[in-house]
Write the structure tokens for this entry.
Amino acid sequence: MKTIVEPVSYEDAPSEVRVVYDDIMKTRGIDFVPNFWRTIAHDAALLRRTWETLKEIMAPGALDPMTKEMIAVAVSATNGCEYCIRSHTASARKLGMSDAMLGELMSVVGMFNETNRLAFGYQVEPDEVFFK
Amino acid sequence: MKTIVEPVSYEDAPSEVRVVYDDIMKTRGIDFVPNFWRTIAHDAALLRRTWETLKEIMAPGALDPMTKEMIAVAVSATNGCEYCIRSHTASARKLGMSDAMLGELMSVVGMFNETNRLAFGYQVEPDEVFFK
Amino acid sequence: MKTIVEPVSYEDAPSEVRVVYDDIMKTRGIDFVPNFWRTIAHDAALLRRTWETLKEIMAPGALDPMTKEMIAVAVSATNGCEYCIRSHTASARKLGMSDAMLGELMSVVGMFNETNRLAFGYQVEPDEVFFK
Amino acid sequence: MKTIVEPVSYEDAPSEVRVVYDDIMKTRGIDFVPNFWRTIAHDAALLRRTWETLKEIMAPGALDPMTKEMIAVAVSATNGCEYCIRSHTASARKLGMSDAMLGELMSVVGMFNETNRLAFGYQVEPDEVFFK
Amino acid sequence: MKTIVEPVSYEDAPSEVRVVYDDIMKTRGIDFVPNFWRTIAHDAALLRRTWETLKEIMAPGALDPMTKEMIAVAVSATNGCEYCIRSHTASARKLGMSDAMLGELMSVVGMFNETNRLAFGYQVEPDEVFFK
Amino acid sequence: MKTIVEPVSYEDAPSEVRVVYDDIMKTRGIDFVPNFWRTIAHDAALLRRTWETLKEIMAPGALDPMTKEMIAVAVSATNGCEYCIRSHTASARKLGMSDAMLGELMSVVGMFNETNRLAFGYQVEPDEVFFK
């Protein structure tokens, strides 16, 4: 077993899990359930909550879905989460992220992980103008 | 002294630093040099390199400057860098980020810091489709 | 060579290392020395210090060993350390952690990695009641 | 303004926010709304989702609430989130965490943040036994 | 109370704590006990273990103490730990770190926090030569 | 495809990329272009900026190159970046880092990742002496 718990196949899933699986495939327009969802399905409440929240958050709103997926890539690259980097990069591309956009996204993520440490390392004080 | 090194005032700055200060104020359309730049100015090469790189990265390209500043907020919130959160939030607002956009940005950042840990914690394997 | 230094086998270990290996196997009730210990054994002082400290910390005290192993999983999932997630999950299970407990542990770890970033991102001020 | 957005007072809160505020105070047995909730209330959907999820996760289950709050402290200390450390330590104490338990919790959190980096730094390979 | 537990003053310290306090002041050549040690002293075993380990690690060896303090600054700036950044920068300076060395240290820390994210973000594969 | 973008081979590289590749091989004294550079080469501006900055930062200065590579290892082990740990450990060894130095480096990195969390977890206040 490579994951910490056995992923739950569609066949073995209890009905409360199957309902979520169906919604994931329908919403995403895919014909399989990605490993992430099949793995957390081992705790049905965790699966339901995570999917409902994610679906709500990633819906079009003040920000468009592609921008949201790129922000997800930025978070995942900062944390070094392989699964997340691969899945959100794939999703962002599907939604229109070009190679040029990916290159700029990575540049921005790299840059501010650098300046974050300069601000930390020198203990830079916030300018007063930020508090007005 | 609160920062680790004394910030360099415009008056005391050597000419190679003053040139960067002038460019920062002109490019940003502000009449003061933020503490971040005045602090790293204590190493003139670090100041120059960081500013030149940042200016190049944040220029309009495949991504617009507001989106880039929001990605900077995402990185900084993930890392917990106060100075960076305050400065990039301020910049993003100046470029048009509304309160609704900020709320969605924070929702996305929070969400994927959560799912990153679920993917880590369960050691979820990337789906084969990600490698095609 | 996959690790950065060659793990030290029991056969090749100097006596000061072998003493620690013996104690690890006896204390843990296992008949092999896990890779973590065999790898850091390349620096005998690091091995001894780390094992002595870990043994002292993980002994039953105000908190029981299973709770301590679950806290170790929480730290390791937050940091994304594969070796550590696998080993501490295995240890916690051996000490009685059920699948239901694992599911709740992951839910809690995910949740607070999210709220940590909301608190960071909005720079929420501690309530006065926390300082009383 | 010290937080990035103005916290929403009970008086100024729209009814959908007030409902959550009331539930927080009732569930927690407190007569004020902590800054964390008043700050994220600026995005009513974020407030509702976060509170509903947290309430569900922190309810007694396979793990007791005190253990869950201690895991929250472990995550928050690993990430360095001041607000979160203060609030979860306070909650854990209210639920029965003694000073001795806090000391052991901190010891465990410190220890595994150390060993996580040894495992990273030496790129230790998971033992085969972890995959059975 | 600002720290999570009341720091233990020399006067109120039990003898096992006082012994460590005396050793800290003697080893460091200072006439006060820094807050870090007074805070963790609330758990006497944690204080003793941490001090003994730190003293052993920071002693001159294959690396000189100033280099070790600079590595401590690098770790602390990466994690954003204010107390640690301030104390290790002060220690490194005492041991001879010049302003020029500090500037280069920060440049290196910033740079590799950037490239770490580029390697994460693009999921760069290790070159085969690294495994020979 | 295992990386997120196809690494750019020397043969397929446009001239602006080839110039950087040549400089990397010449400066490093190697006859191949490591995957890191071939991967980010997909964005030529990112490649050029990153290499120029790295070359400037890693040149001998107030700190020697071996010390700089060890600091890079410290950052990478703290963040858990496999590629970076492998490449900077290899570079540091080439520049003279012995096994004994590596052992001490890892000990220091582990130790301060631990104390960083104790300082965070207890919210230790900086001593006044740090601000003088």
Q: What stands out?
A: Helices of chain B lie at 15-28, 35-40, 44-58, 65-79, 82-94, 99-121.
